[in-house]
Amino acid sequence: MPDQYAVIGNPVAHSRSPLIHEAFARQTGVDLEYRTLLAPTDGFTATANEFRAGGGRGLNVTLPFKGEAFRYAAFLSERASAAQAVNTLKFERGVIFGDNTDGAGLVNDLTKNLVRALSGQRILLLGAGGAARGVIDPLLQQQPLQLTLANRTPDKAQSLARSFGGAIEAGDYDALAGRQFDVIINATSASLAGKLPPLPPGVFAPGALAYDMMYGKGETPFLAFARNEGVAQLADGLGMLVEQAAESFFVWRGLRPDGAAVLKQLRQMQNA
Ligand code: NDP
How remote is the CA of residue 72 from the centroid of ligand 1, in Å? Predict the structure, then answer.
């Protein structure tokens, strides 16, 4: 029987992870099966246990279970500990290993696919939820000139910044007036609701990149705002999705698939 993998979530039927991992398996010649696994909102542990008992080798974890997966893992990578969330579980010789590949996925998409070096850049990260927390450490490792967090509820951003030892500054959106950034990443869920985080005009520096972690819903209000502000480089989160999957595949199989090729296929499907 091929090695079994799945993405666990609720809802999960819409997930593109099976498509992505099947493409990686074809690329690398690995024999695996990858499916979606719907868990009841109060049934993450039971569903993951059952999958493991059936010989499952690994899980990707999506909403709303990344925190539960963090507690489920017996061993954690450094980046999962920093994120306090797990999106990749590996089951090997009776051990549950938890990792978080979201940050690496974002950084690889920015630096490789979008060819944007982050070192020396002024980066603004919008939001202070799970997605923002997961990408802070990998962004800091790129040695930006500064990393600033803005959140609707500033206390949350400030407490998140403190947990990273003061390497970042944090506040509300009003504090951004009169300032400019080279890379602005929308890690809020505002786009899901068709809303724009309250950014002041003029916040994009000349030559800036606007990145929305959301994908698959056309141009988001954030990207539309950036376009109106004259930003030329706009990106959605599809590349992050593919690159976090490539990193998970590497964690499971020790092989690095070509994320860019799969991203190209997904874009073609999206535009067809
Ligand atoms: P959370 O629910 O943990 O956090 C939501 C954040 O959005 C909070 O900071 C919240 O602010 C803020 N927010 C919500 N609505 C608004 C608004 N109208 N204006 C300003 N801020 C707002 O969500 P996650 O962090 O888990 O996910 C965020 C996004 O990232 C989602 O769209 C998700 O799809 C995407 N994502 C994409 C991935 C990819 O691979 N491309 C991977 C992971 C996530 P407050 O604290 O004030 O409530």
Answer: 23
